[in-house]
Design brief:
By secondary structure, this protein is α/β, with parallel strands linked by helices. It has a single domain, classed as Ribonuclease Z/Hydroxyacylglutathione hydrolase-like (Metallo-beta-lactamase, Chain A), CATH 3.60.15.
Length: 299
């Protein structure tokens, strides 16, 4: 098995191509569609790099795997699938829960499906995928979102936002449906794997200005994770994670990303004027005074 990493500097996102050296069968994990919010412009530089690597190495792309509905970047899955129509797009089966929540948040059309049909496959823990000689197992790791999964391929796991590098800790848990208690239990599932299991993370924010890193091990995580080392109690982690999340700002591309990603990376359909529009709700998570309202202390 070979693993090729790709780093998007704009969103600090790591994507991966994992492939069988002998059969040339491959999967892509968490591809990125480039997006600039000031001009609301998309382009395909990040996805093109993945596509070029697959083609240049004569790989046979079988699956495009999403670890969750990302809140910090738009998925490039549709761009990759256009280049490789035979590849199936897959995500954890609990994506339907996230679709239901955000259909309401964005007031999406009544016919917007919340049964996951936008994806080719909804994955559970009991049905591994076979890619050449590689077996890909799905491990449910909710907490950051209800639908988060980790993919295990031989001695490697791809954790999305469940675990970051040890000096970063874990993903946040304050999005709708997120749960620090669930994330604690998810990490314990991962910590039950052998210590030499390789861990490939979904983001690296390079704390302290250190060099980019994306690979660690379960043993290193258990010994050195600054937020959830082995032995930290559930109560301690919940208190730390919830207090930290309360002080975090929303991700820069939260609303743009989620409404695209719950729809399997599809941009909104063009309106009557042939322009696509993203919906940006106001004061939906942490309401403040809306225009025209009067604060109690002004009465």
């Amino acid at each position: 098995m070979e693993i090729k990493s790709f780093y998007d500097t704009r969103t600090s996102t790591l994507s991966y191509v994992v492939y069988d050296v002998d059969t040339r069968d491959a999967v892509v994990i968490d591809p990125v569609l480039d997006y600039e919010p000031k001009s609301s412009k998309t382009w395909t530089e990040s996805a093109d790099a993945l596509i070029a690597f697959v083609k240049d190495n004569d790989l046979k792309l079988q699956y495009i795997l999403e670890t969750h509905a990302h809140a910090d970047h738009l998925s490039g899955s549709q761009i990759v699938q256009q280049a490789f129509p035979q590849a199936k797009l897959a995500v954890g089966e609990r994506i339907t829960e996230v679709q239901k929540v955000f259909k309401n948040v964005f007031d999406l059309p009544a016919d917007f499906p919340t049964d996951g049909r936008q994806f080719d496959l909804l994955l559970n823990e009991d049905e591994p995928l076979q890619v050449g000689t590689l077996t890909i197992e799905t491990i449910f790791t909710p907490g950051h979102t209800p639908a988060c999964v980790t993919y295990k391929v031989e001695d490697a796991i791809f954790t999305g936002d469940a675990l970051f590098m040890p000096d970063m800790g874990t993903g946040r848990c304050d999005f709708p449906g997120g749960s620090s208690a669930d994330l604690y239990e998810s990490v314990q599932k991962l910590y039950a794997l052998p210590d030499d299991t390789r861990v490939f993370v979904g983001h690296d924010y390079q704390p302290g200005g250190r060099e980019l890193a994306w690979e660690t091990t379960i043993g290193e995580q258990k010994a050195n994770n600054i937020q959830i080392p082995a032995g930290r109690s559930k109560e301690e982690f919940i208190k730390f994670r919830d207090e930290r999340d309360a002080g975090l700002e929303a991700p820069r591309l939260l609303f743009q990303s989620v409404q695209v990603n719950v729809d399997a990376g599809h941009l909104p359909q063009p309106s009557g004027n042939e322009v696509r529009y993203l919906r940006i709700p106001v004061n939906v998570f942490k309401p403040s005074r809306d225009e025209g309202e009067t604060e109690l202390n002004e009465v």
